[in-house]
Each structure stands twice: as structure tokens, then as C-alpha cells.
Amino acid sequence: MEERTGRAPLYNQDPAPSLTAGQNFNFYHMDLYDSEDRLKIFPEEKFQMRGEIAREPKRGERAPELSLATYDVQKEVEELAQYYGLEDDKELEGETEVGSVLRSGISEYQSAPSSLRPHTVPKRRDLGREEKDWQYLGEEAGEEDNRFPAWGSRGQYQELREAYRYARGRSSEEYECYVIPEEEDEEEAADIFCVTCKIPIRAFDNLFGEHKEHEVTQLNTAAENAREEIHKNMFKLEEQIIQMENFASHLEEVFITIEENFGRQEQNFELHYNEILETLAQKYEEKMQALGEKKREKIEALYGQLVSCGENLDTCKELMETIEEICHEEKVEFIKDAVTMADRLGEFLKTKTDVELSTHPDFEDQTIDFSDIEQLMDSINAIPAPCAPVINTQTPNSATGTSVKVCWSLFSDDTVESYQLSYKPVSDGAQSEEQKEFSVNVKESHYSVTNLMPNTQYEFWVTASNSTGISPPSERAVYVTAPSPPIIKSKEILSCEHAALVRWESGNMNPVDSYTIELSKVDNEEPGNVVTESIVGIPTCESLIQLQPGESYLVYVRAINVGGPSERSEPATIRTTGTYFHLNKDTSHPLLSISEDGFTIVRGKGESSTREPCDSDIRFTRCVAVMGSLIPIKGQHYWEVEVNEQMDYKVGVAFEDINRQGDLGADSSSWCMSHTFISSRHKYEFLHNGVTPEIQITVPPKKIGILLDYDSYRLSFFNVDIAQHLYTFSYPPSTFCAALFFLRKAWIVKSL
Amino acid sequence: MALKQISSNKCFEGFQKVYEHDSVELKCKMKFGIYLPPKAETGKCPVLYWLSGLTCTEQNFITKAGYHQAAAEHGLIVVAPDTSPRGCNIKGEDDSWDFGTGAGFYVNATEEPWKTNYRMYSYVIDELPKLINANFPADPEKISIFGHSMGGHGALICALKNPRKYKSVSAFSPICNPMLCPWGKKAFSGYLGTDQSKWEAYDATRLVKSYPDSQLDILIDQGKDDQFLKDGQLLPDNFIAACAERKIPVVFRLQEGYDHNYYFIATFINDHIRHHAKYLNA
To answer: Where in the numbering of this chain does the Fibronectin type-III domain appear (chain A) (predicted)?
Structure first.
């Protein structure tokens, strides 16, 4: 008993009335039980009442919970009461009746009627019917009074209770609401929780009762823990519910699938069997017709024979008659006629009388050919030959330079054992020779075709086959392989601190859609070339890219077409620590030769002549000079030139369209530093428009730094080794210009 | 070493001030001009010393050269001391414009009666910088020097006698080889005596020959129409030849049409400020 009531708080959300709402009314539908059963209740009742009295003061605390549950029960009871047609009219009488019944039934109970009454009576409106029951109960109880002390064992009560639950669980309308007063015990406010026994107990018990020295916790904590556990279980249940729901919907899907599959099979069978039946019927028709024909033929033949037989008979008869007539004639005449007759007879007998049956009456055994039927029968279980597959168009970016991934699908649910994928390069009309076709057998509905030519269009088509046959070929689809990687013209890269102009060759015969530049900063700490920036959609073979100063970059280029991007080109290195450019050989005076790396100029022996054949508009002819293009970017540009200090040279800048026949610095299109070495004296000039300031420089520079600043309109020259500023032109070109070099003697200039 | 402010004028967001103080080296009151750029209000700035030419006071440069804007932009303190001790009551100090008052020649005199007061070399390289560093937001590690004419001579010898003390040096129309020019001969014989070996210690062209390395970037501007150039007072070619021989970097610009006065200085002062700023702000 203790254990059961102890768990009550955990179940206080359970709406089952038997657990919660017993204390206020006691009303039993006695029809259910025989007298013994009914009376078993009383000892329990008594027990409850006593408990109630003792704990009365604490009950208020739990009232809200209980009243809700009570209300539910109450409602239910009311409904049931109405169902059974019970009346409320004896409400007041009932009150007294209850008391008296109890008194009469239970002697001990008399000690506490006053405390029982407030619980059992005042809250109830529908005591009328209780009263009725009580009345009933009272009578019964009275009868069994003498047996009463023997009852009240826990086991009996339990049985009763379970019986009730069981019955109620099955069909509640069979029973009146049935509330067991022992529930009150569960409502007793146990105030702490005995961990050892796992039940709530009163603190009192912990001190003196059977839970003495048991481990206890606060009831709240215990309740919280229990609630948590319940919640956990609820979650599990919820999960299970979801699982089951999923399973159910899966089952539904399976239903549908079965429906569809079988429907399809039915259709298939119907089709085939109809076909077979038709074929059979046709065959029957044919056979019957053939049979009839044969019959008519035979009959006709026999009839003809019959006719000719009759004719013969007639002739014979006539002959016989004639012969008989002759026999009756005179001898002379007889002789005469006999001779004639004998001739005639002889002639007649000579003609063969055909008595052979021209036709056999019996049926000629004819074998019926069922082979086609058999084939049809077979084909019911065999699958039809597939339809032509549908070849997909190329998925963008799925190709490489040497391979494409071709995909296709089937129209219907054809069963396919394998596909044959065929392809050939698309030939432009000019090529008359037929391109070779290739084929591969594939199990899947996709295939990566390899060993193709880059940036080339290929035509693909596919057939499907199974044991029954081969489908017609699909439409032809054109796939294109990715391009070959471009080739960066590393010698034509121009760069400065903030930008670089990168040029490259396509690397492909056919045009490509665009190019992508990938930049990766070269970091000493992380040598891995992580692409830090990409520039996409570049239509031409050059691009001006913005960079950060003082860095080193690796630059890659990819070519892009429908099929996808090419592999990366070989990288080119760009350093944004100065301005880089290469000398343009096309502008070079014939006497100058430029080294392989594009940075070093060497003047060959020989005198410059104005009569030098001019093979190019942009080539210097008078001045032994060469130009290099600067990157067309505003801002500052700095580059350095290594010179020999005993060499005559001019370095500087000029507009691209500088007069190739003029002297450098002689007009307004060029600015230059000039060095002449005469009788072991260095002469430095800074020439523009043919004039120079008078400047003496004590340390001949070996390396000249040139700073062209478009923003502040300055062109400065430095002796790099000692960081000496030599000269600055103000207001040099504000439009883009080119670096300029001139050599008067056979020496080397190196631009860095 | 109490400083007395004589004047203060706001100029390009900084201040042009003049101070007076009692000089220990020169044993007289000395004035100097100092320009404090706006940057000096928040932090230490490099100091550029200007040495003026014959007859000048601290006023000529600060009123005529027009250097303030460039100095403000580059954040340079510019200090312009006087050119000689004044009011020392030495007999003959005011007799000529090219000797005595206004003509200290930036040497430490060894001859009576000048040797007590005429110690401009020590004043410029030692006392004045200490005074500046102690009283103004100056970066003692970053100093440069330049000057005009006699001041140009002063700037060159200060730089050449004290390798690495000055980050850079420049000069307008400097007296490059005083031992060989009339001004120099007069001054040196007066202050240093007749022993020419003593003169060499204050002659830029001579000093170059013993300069230990080439870590000095020298910018010299010279007006082509400078009368004193024609008179052989300045002798830049001797200096350039010596530098070329010693591989000491000099850019010498002979400016067409300019003469010896402050209009010429004002024309190229920005180049010189930039030249120094390149090293002082490096």
C-alpha cells in the first residue's frame, strides 16, 4: 500500500480518476460485484479516513492540482449519472444518510464523522445518486456486518481495484464512475523522498518510522528527477512515433509502387495475351480456310471422276444394246454390222477406263506450326527491346582537356543490359575525310570518355540493348572538351607596384569563351600556392590586374569554354616591388642587340648611319636606341638601369610616338639623363627640349633609379647604390610613355 | 641656460620663434631663430640647422628664405643661429663686414683677442644642439645641417669634421675652399694665425680628402651669375674635384641666371628641405 501511494505524485498528471479524486465522494456501483466484493471496500475506507484526518492541514497545498483532476472526475460522474438516469433530488437527505450508513457499518468510524463529512459531502452537487448508492451499500453492509473485521487485507483491495481498472479500461460506460477512497493516501503530502525505498515519505517517518536512517532527498528534487525521466521517456516515445509515421508513409509508398508495378504488368500481360489470342484466331481462320479448300478440291475431283465414269457406263450400255440388236439381225447384216461393231468395240476397249480414285478420301495429316505462338508466349515473360535513349546536353564545367562526361537516360522503364556509346569529332564542312567513329560499351547511363583532343567538339550518340534487342540510336549531342592551358608570355608581363599587365597565348586552335586569371601570393611561411584571387570572364589574351605593393605573386591563366576550364598554365612570377617591363625588339636600332631575357642591351660595333635601311616605322634609325613599354597605369613607376660608368648612355622616358629619327631629349617628346665620358671626365645632362641644367655629379652612378610619378608630375633620377637624388624633371609626361635607352658606344645597359 | 623668448609667430600651423640665451661658449647673449612645425606639438622632430652667411643675423634666413611651408610639410624643426658673437667689445670686431661681428666663419679662434668669444664651431656643433634638445621636442639622433655662403662653408666643415653626426648636408653657394680665397685667408689668418696647417681643419676641400667614408649625400646649388663665384671666393670646382676623387657623392647644380642673394635661396630651398627630409625622415 505504501509503495503504491508513494508513487502517486509522479502520476498526478494522469487523468485516471481512480488515482486522484477519491476523497470527496464514495460511490460504488454495486451491481458489479457480489456482496463480498462490495464489502471489501470498507476496511480500506476506514483506513483512508483515518489518514485523512491526520493529514488534513497539509492538503491545502496541493489543492490546485487535485481540484482539476477532481473536476474531471466529477464531470465524468455527472455524465454517467445522467446516462443512468439518476436524480439529484435527494441531495440533502443524502448527507445524513451517508453518515448514518457509515456509522452503522463501521464502528471505528464514529470517532471521526465530523472530519469525514466536510470531505465527502460539501463539494458534491450530485450526492443524490451517491446517496442512493450509499443507501444500497448500507443495506448490504449491514448484512455483512459480522464479517467485516476479516476484510481489509491489502491483497483483496488490490484485486478489487485492478478488477475495476480492467473493466473500466475495456468499456467505461458499463460502469459508473468508481472512485476508490484509498487515493487519498496518495494525496497525503509526503514532504521528503526516501531514496532507499524510492517513495515519498513524511519527514516524521525519516526520524521515527520505518525509513529511519534511510537516505532522503527533498521531494521537489525527487519529483524533478522523476519528471526528467518521464520527459526522457516521452522523447523516446515521440521519436518512436515519428519513426512509425515514417514507416507508415514508407509503407504507403510501397503500396503505391506495388499498385503501379502490378498495373503495368497486368497491362503488359493483357497486351501480350491478346496478341497471342489474335494470332491463334488468325491461325485457326487460316487453317479452317485451307481445310475447306482442300475438301472442295477433293470433292470436285471426285465429282468429275464420277461424271466421266457415268459417261463411260452409258457408252458401255449403248454398246451392249447395239451388240444385242446386232445379234438379233440377219446373218448377212449381222456380219456386216458385226465387223463395224467389232471395230467400234475394239476402239472403245482400247480407250482405258480409269477406275483409279483420283483423290483419297482420307484427311492428309497436316502439322500445325506453333512456333510463332511459342515465340509470342515466350515474349510474355521476356522484355521488350528498349526505346532509343535520350542523350543529355553537356553539363557546363564537366569536361577536361582530354575527357568529357557524357550522360543519358531512358524514356521509359525499359530494361537495359548495356549501352553502346559512339562518338566522333565534329568535322567542319571543309574536311572531306570522314572522321573515325569510336564506340564503347557501358553499363551505367554515363561515361567519361577520355583521350580526346582539347577544345574540340565531339558528337555523341547512344543505343541501349537487352536480350531482346537493340534500341534505335539516340539523338546526337555535341560535347566539347575543355581547352588546352594558355601559355603566359612571361617576357611581355608589365608590372608596377599596384598592377600588372599579363599577356598570354590562347594555346588553342579554336577560339575559347574566356580566360580566368588565378593569383597566389608567394608567402615564405606558406609555400603552398593557395589561390588568393581569381579574375574571371576575361575575353582577350591580356589583362590588367590590380595588385598589392611589395608582394610576390604567382599568376596562372586558364582558358574556359562550355566544357569547362583548362588546366592551369605554367605560372609566371610577378613582383610588385618596382616597375617591370621588357625591351621591345621591334623598336631597337639595328646595331643594338637585346639579350634572351629581354633585359640587356648590347651595342654592336659599327657606326650609326642615317642611310640605314628602315624596315619598320617604330624602329630607331638615327639614334642607337630601344624602347620598352611601361604598364599603362597611373601612379608611381620605378625601375633601375645598370650602366657602365665609362659608357655613354641616355636613359629616360618618351612618348610612344617619339620621332624615331630624332635625338633623345632634343624635343618635347622625351626626357632623359645623358652621360658622356670625355677625357676621363663624366658629363651628366638631363635633357628635355634640347636643354639641360648644369649639374656636376661626383660619384658616377652604376645603377640609375628612375622614378616616374604621373600623379605629382615628376620624373626623378637616382644613384641607387648611394640613394642619391640626381635630378628631377617637373611636369614630365602626364600621358603614358615608354622607357628609353640609348647607347653611343659598345657597352651594355641592363634594365632591372 | 635660460631661454628668453623674443618673438613667436604662427606660420604654416607651426611657430616661428626667436630666443635669446647666454652662451657659455661665446660668453655673450646669443639669439637664434627656431621654426617648430605642427608635428612638434605631438612628437619629437628632426632638427635641421641653418648657418647663414657673412653679415647675417638669425633674422635673414627666417624672414627671406621661405622655408616654412616645406619644413611644416616634412615635420622638421629648423634652427637658425646668429653668425658670430655680438657685443663682446673686442677691438676691431666691427671694422669690416667680412671679419669679426657677423663673420665668425664657424671656427674656434685660437688667436687673441678672438679666442675667448669666437668659438662658433663649438657653439654650432655642441652648445646649440644641447640647448635645442633640452628645450624643444627635438630628436637628438636626427640632425642635418645646411647653409649659405660662409654658412655653406660652415655646414660642410661641420659635416665633414663629424662623420655620421649629421644625416645629410647641403649648401647654397658655399665657400668651398677658404684657404684659397680672399675671405677665407683673411678670416683664418685672423682667427687661427698664420700657420696654414691649422687652416686645413676648417677647409671643406681639404677635409674631404681625409673624410673616412662616403656616407654623406651633399647637395650644392650655385647661381651661375654669382659675382662671388666669378671673384673666386667660392671655388666649388676644387671641392667637386676632391669629392669626385674621394667618391663622396655630390650633386652640384649650377643654376643659370641666379646670383648670391636670398632670392636664389628661396628658389631652391624646397629642394634642399626635401633633400634633408629624405634622410631625416627615413
So the answer is: 389-485, 486-579
Terminal Cα distance for chain A, rounded: 103
Catalytic sites of B, residue numbers: 149, 226, 260
A680 vs B: CB within 8 A: no
- Of B214, B243, B253, which has the smallest distance from its Cβ to A695's Cβ? B253
> Helix (H) and strand (E) counts for chain A?
13, 33
- Residue (of B123, B111, B269, B120) closest to B193 by Cα position: B111
pLDDT at A49: 46
Coil, strand or helix at A565: strand
Domain A487-576 has CATH 2.60.40.10: yes
Q: Which of B209, B235, B251 to mutate to test the interface with A (most CBs of A within 10 A)?
A: B251
> Do the Cβ atoms of B224 and A694 come within 8 Å?
yes
Residue B137 pLDDT grade (very low, low, confident, very high; cuts 50, 70, 90): very high
| Cell 460502469 -> residue | A175
ipTM confidence score: 0.86
What band does B12 get if pLDDT is binned at 50, 70 and 90? very high
Nearby residues of A718 by Cβ (< 8 Å), 6 or more positions away = A701, A704, A705, A706, A707, A724, A725, A726
Cα dist from A344 to A155, A315, A329, A355, whole Å: 138, 11, 18, 21
Fold for the domain defined by A390-428+435-480: Immunoglobulin-like (2.60.40)
pLDDT beneath 50: ranges in chain A? 1-70, 86-153, 167, 169-186, 610-611, 745-748, 752
Residue B96 is part of which domain span?
4-281
Average pLDDT in chain B: 93
Instruction: Measure the CA–CA gap between B266 and A89, rounded to whole angstroms.
Output: 126
pLDDT value, residue B31? 94
CA A451/CA A400 separation, integer angstroms = 10
Count CB neighbours of B205 within 10 A.
24
Residue A575: phi and psi, rounded to 5, are -115, 130
Q: What gap in Å lies between CA B279 and CA A722, rounded to an integer? A: 12
Structure confidence by residue, pLDDT tens digits, A560-596: 888 888 888 888 888 888 777 777 777 777 777 777 7
Q: At what angle do helices A91-105 and A127-143 cross, to 10 degrees?
A: 20
CATH number of A585-606+614-743: 3.10.180.10, 3.90.550.10, 3.30.930.10, 2.60.120.920? 2.60.120.920
Q: How far apart are CA A167 and CA A171, in angstroms?
A: 6
Residue numbers of A between 683 and 722 with CB closer than 8 Å to B: 693-699, 719, 722
Say which residues have a Cβ less than 8 Å from residue B85's Cβ, sequence separation at least 6.
B23, B26, B27, B28, B30, B101, B104, B117, B118, B120
Mutate which of B160, B253, B273, B280 to test chain A, going by most A C-beta atoms within 10 A? Answer: B253
Bridge partners for A470 per DSSP:
A465
8 Å CB contact between A617 and A735: no
The contacts of residue A751 (CB under 8 Å, 6+ apart) are A581, A583, A599, A600, A601, A628, A639, A640, A641, A642, A739, A741
- DSSP H or E segment with residue B68: helix B68-74
The residue ranges of every structural domain in chain A are 221-349, 390-428+435-480, 487-576, 585-606+614-743
Q: How far is CA B141 from CA A153, A445, B78, in A?
A: 109, 80, 15
Cβ–Cβ of A699/B278 closer than 8 Å? no
Tell me, yes or no, if B256 comes closer than 8 A to chain A by beta carbon. Answer: yes
Say which CATH number the domain at B242 has. Answer: 3.40.50.1820
Dihedral over Cα of A209, A215, A218, A222: its sign: negative
CA–CA distances in Å: residue A526 to residues A408, A522, A553, A555: 44, 8, 13, 16
Strand partners, A319: none
Cβ neighbours, 10 Å, residue A270: 10
